[in-house]
Amino acid sequence: MKEIPTRFLALAAVAALFGMIWGIQMSASHDYTLSPAHGHLNLIGFVTMSIFGTYYALTPRAADRPLAKLHFWIATAAVVLLAPGIVIAITDRGELLAQIGSLLAILSMALFAFTIVRYGVGPFVAAKTDGQEN
Ligand code: HEM
């Protein structure tokens, strides 16, 4: 298994590739019906995954925790379910998948917020007054 930053950034790049091809397909066909799904694939898939991956690369003590693996799988499930879920919702075939994807996306962001507060940002930990590290 690859390291956490590599996993996040590799998935981000794959999402961007699909998202951009999708954008070109929309432009070529002049059919923009699914543009919200394209936008979410790029933003949830590429932008947020890239930020998560960069954070974990900067903060190895957070990347080494089991929570980081859980975060990766929840964030991945959010991308994989949300983009098709929006397509299905836009084409009036139900909203369940988009709803599940949205809940996973918000759970992923909540885990990210918790991780930042718990482990901080960057490779160094602030020394406590007794001289011990966190
Ligand atoms: C090859 C690259 C890309 C192409 C050809 C492309 C193309 C498009 C097209 C044709 C639209 C629809 C515009 C309209 O409805 O008038 C669109 C919408 C959008 N794109 Fe892209 N795009 C690309 C990359 C990206 C990236 C990298 C992001 C974000 C990081 C992004 C985010 C969005 C968003 C947020 C929308 C608006 C969605 C909405 O209206 O609901 N796109 N794009």
From TrEMBL:
Annotated TM spans: 39-58, 70-90, 96-117
UniProt keyword annotations, A-Z: Membrane, Transmembrane, Transmembrane helix
Domain of life, per lineage: Bacteria
Protein name, as recorded: Uncharacterized protein
Organism of provenance: Sulfitobacter aestuariivivens
